[in-house]
C-alpha cells in the first residue's frame, strides 16, 4: 500500500530525529508505528538510508518482532485465542468462522478498514474458553453466533 505525502514526511522526520542515536532502529520503528499506525514497506528504504543499514537488515528486524504491523490497522482489533485451553473448547472452529465471515486471514484488515484480525496466545481467561479480545475487552465463551454479534456491534465489516 502506498503512503501519502504526510506519512512519508513523518517517516523522513523521524529518521532524522533518530539517526544519530545508538541503537536507533527499534525506537525508530516504534515511533513510525506510533505516528503512521504501521511500518509501510516504502519506509524500509528511507530507514535503511538514514541509519546506514541494508534493507535486508531493516526487513529482518521488522519481521522478527511481531509487534510491528506492515499493513494499516483497522479501527477495531479482534484477537482470537489459539492457546491450548481455548483450542480444546473449539477456538479452531471459531477462527475458521471468523476468517470466513470477515473475508480475511490473521494479520489482515477488512476492506472497509473496520476490523483487524489477530491471533493471541492466552488471554488469561482459560476457564471461560474460548476467549476473544475485542479492542480492550475480553469476551468469554465465544461461539460462532456470539462472534457474529460482536462483529455486528462493531458496525459490521463484510
Ligand atoms: S488458553 Fe485461551 S484464554 Fe487461556
Count of DSSP H/I helices:
7
CATH architectural designation of the largest domain: 3-Layer(aba) Sandwich
Shape: elongated
Strand content: 5-15%
User: What summary fits the major beta sheet?
Assistant: 5 strands, mixed
Strand order of the largest sheet: 2-3-1-4-5
> How many β-strands, per DSSP?
5
Could you state the CATH homologous superfamily of the largest domain?
Answer: Glutaredoxin
Given helix and strand content, the structural type is: alpha+beta
The level of helicity is: 40-55%
How much is the average pLDDT? 93
General description of the model:
The protein folds into two domains: 5-64, no CATH class; 76-153, Glutaredoxin. The chain is 47% helix and 13% strand. It has helices spanning 5-18, 25-36, 41-51, 55-64, 84-88, 91-102, 144-153, and strands at residues 76-81, 108-109, 115-120, 132-134, 137-139. The protein has a five-stranded mixed β-sheet, with helices on one face. A hairpin with a 5-residue loop joins strand 2 (108-109) and strand 3. Residues 81, 83-86, 122-126, 129, 131 line the site of FE2/S2 (inorganic) cluster (FES).
What is the topological layout?
Blueprint: H1 5-18, H2 25-36, H3 41-51, H4 55-64, E1 76-81, H5 84-88, H6 91-102, E2 108-109, E3 115-120, E4 132-134, E5 137-139, H7 144-153
Parallel strand pairs: 1-3
Antiparallel strand pairs: 1-4, 2-3, 4-5
Helix pairs in contact: 1-2, 1-3, 3-4
The structure holds FE2/S2 (inorganic) cluster (FES).
Amino acid at each position: 500500500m502506498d503512503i501519502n505525502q504526510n506519512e512519508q514526511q513523518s517517516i523522513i522526520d523521524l529518521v532524522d530525529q533518530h539517526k544519530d542515536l545508538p541503537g536507533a532502529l527499534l525506537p525508530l520503528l516504534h515511533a513510525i508505528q506510533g505516528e503512521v499506525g504501521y511500518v509501510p514497506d516504502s519506509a524500509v528504504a528511507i530507514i535503511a538510508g538514514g541509519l546506514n543499514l541494508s534493507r535486508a537488515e531493516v526487513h529482518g528486524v521488522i519481521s522478527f518482532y511481531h509487534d510491528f504491523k506492515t499493513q494499516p490497522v483497522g479501527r477495531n482489533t479482534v484477537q482470537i485465542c489459539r492457546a491450548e485451553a481455548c483450542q480444546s473448547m473449539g477456538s479452531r472452529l471459531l477462527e475458521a468462522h471468523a476468517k470466513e465471515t470477515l473475508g480475511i486471514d490473521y494479520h489482515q484488515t477488512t476492506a472497509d478498514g473496520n476490523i483487524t484480525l489477530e491471533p493471541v496466545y492466552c488471554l488469561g481467561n482459560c476457564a471461560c474458553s474460548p476467549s476473544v479480545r475485542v479492542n480492550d475487552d475480553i469476551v468469554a465463551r465465544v461461539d460462532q453466533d456470539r462472534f457474529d454479534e460482536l462483529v455486528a456491534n462493531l458496525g459490521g465489516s463484510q
